[in-house]
Amino acid sequence: MMSFIFYIFVFWVLYRVFDKFKGTQNFSHNKRVNFKEANYLIALLAKVAKGDGRVHELEARIISETITDMSYQTGIDRDEFKKIFNKEKECISDAYDVARRYKDEFRLNRQVAIARITFFLNLAYIDGDFAPSEQKIIKEIANGFGIDDDLLDTIIYRFDTFYRSQQRYRQNRYNNSSRSNDTQNKKLPYEILGVSKDSDFKDIKKRYRELVKKYHPDILMGQGESDEVIEKSTKKLQEINEAYEEIKQQRGEN
Questions:
Q1: 36, 108, 141, 225: least surrounded by Cβ within 10 Å?
Q2: What are phi and psi of 32, to 5 degrees?
Q3: Phi, psi of 137 (to 5 degrees)
Q4: CATH topology (fold) of 186-251
Q5: What DSSP letter does each residue of 108-146 carry, written as one string?
């Protein structure tokens, strides 16, 4: 099984490159989403993630990064978005209605709607299997956005073709880089975050959030960084997340 680092890198690179290929823009690059729009995006994200009956580990970690990004953009505590996600994932039958309300309220044009569908396709594909139940949810969202079935089929076909080619290419690059990385000694979690073992957890949490903002792939993409920088930052962010989770477990923090 391919590692999470590889999958999350494929996720961000695919969305960035395929987005350019389609002539659309990532919603977080050119304008900051407000809380209401973020609600819609998180709600639809939840329905796609739960489309096959459960939220996979890879999907959960991608969702966590997305929620962090939404929190950063809106200034709203990420716990609020987690509540929205947990509520919306329990009811996936209203995906069409949510998408329709989102489209009408924010007057999404076709170009933006295709960009949103592309984003959701990334999540649906992240575990390597685009299940029929996920296809159904994507179709309902697309129809809610006013995208007909013929256009959706074209979007999915192009995305699938592009995904498979990028998957092979990135896997080869990741395998080559992993050989050298495996020989390096693993750093201690406090060293990774740049804090001492005696630091108060509030300070550790503050430092963690600073590092997430510094190395978050979506933020760096918006700054026009190269694929090489994005790749290194994605791996660094994974290391930061693992270090933070280890410290939380050691200290009994939720």
A1: 36
A2: -85, 130
A3: -65, -45
A4: Helix Hairpins (1.10.287)
A5: --HHHHHHHHHHHHHHHHTTS---HHHHHHHHHHHHHTT
Which of 5, 63, 42, 3 lies closest to 235 in space, CA to CA? Answer: 5
Sequence-distant (≥ 6) Cβ neighbours of residue 196 within 8 angstroms: 190
Among candidate residues 144, 51, 61, the one with its CA nearest the CA of residue 97: 144
Q: How far apart are CA 111 and CA 130, in angstroms?
A: 23
Sequential pLDDT tens for the chain (254 residues): 444 444 444 454 444 444 443 333 344 444 457 889 989 999 999 999 888 777 777 777 778 888 888 888 888 898 999 999 999 988 888 899 999 999 999 999 998 898 889 888 888 887 667 889 899 999 999 999 999 999 999 988 888 887 777 666 656 655 655 554 554 455 688 999 999 988 999 999 999 989 988 888 767 766 777 878 888 888 888 889 888 888 988 888 86
**Spans of all domains in the chain:** 4-161, 186-251
Radius of gyration from C-alpha coordinates of the chain: 18
CA distance 247 to 11: 27
The CATH number assigned to the domain with range 4-161 reads 1.10.3680
Q: Determine if the pTM surpasses 0.85.
A: no
> Crossing angle of helices 57-74/78-88, nearest 10°?
130
DSSP annotation string for 169-189: HHHHHHHHHHHHHTTSPPPPH
Would you tell me the crossing angle of helices 149-181 and 132-144 to the nearest 10 degrees? 120
